[in-house]
Design goal:
Largest sheet: 8 strands, parallel
Strand content: 25-35%
Helix content: under 10%
Number of domains: 1
Order of helices and strands: EEEEEEEEEEEEEEEEEEEEE
CATH superfamily: Hexapeptide repeat proteins
CATH topology: UDP N-Acetylglucosamine Acyltransferase, domain 1
CATH architecture: 3 Solenoid
CATH class: Mainly Beta
Structural class: mainly beta
Distance between the termini: 46 Å
Number of strands: 21
Shape: globular
Number of helices: 0
């Protein structure tokens, strides 16, 4: 008996710019509104640059910018009005709250939580389930781990 495979669908609001730049392992469905039951979605007014890879169960909220050659792994969420720079990796189950800015070449490992209003400069690695509460600046060329 064949096991029922879960359908992979990324729901993308029709106002998102750069839909053609998204690499997703399932179907991309362009919609007027995001269904409540959606497990993977990109809400309205987002902007996606070239070669952005998005895995399943990713949630990208309203008005987010995602730079080129960025990877967002399964279970990650990016809050409203956040900016994710070029060449970033957002690993599994990372939670980024609203108004967070990451510059280029930022690597955030699994299970990291970043609170509101945090600014992360370029060439930063955040590792090992860190929690960055809110309102802070992380300088460039830093590794943060616990």
């Amino acid at each position: 008996m064949e096991k029922n495979k879960e359908k992979l669908v990324l729901y993308v609001h029709n106002s998102v710019k750069g839909i053609e730049n998204i690499m997703f392992p399932g179907k991309i469905e362009i919609v007027d509104y995001i269904p409540k039951e959606a497990k993977s979605f990109i809400q309205a007014e987002c902007r996606i640059k070239k070669n952005v890879s998005i895995e399943k169960n990713v949630k990208i909220f309203f008005n987010v910018y995602i730079g080129k050659n960025t990877t967002i792994k399964k279970g990650a969420s990016i809050g409203t009005s956040s900016i994710i720079g070029n060449y970033n990796t957002i690993s599994q189950n990372v939670k980024i709250k609203k108004l967070v800015k990451t510059q280029n070449k930022v690597y955030i490992t699994n299970n990291v939580e970043i609170g509101k209003y945090v600014s992360i400069k370029e060439n930063v690695i955040i590792a090992r389930s860190c929690k960055i509460i809110k309102i802070g600046k992380i300088p460039r060329n830093v590794i943060i781990e616990i």
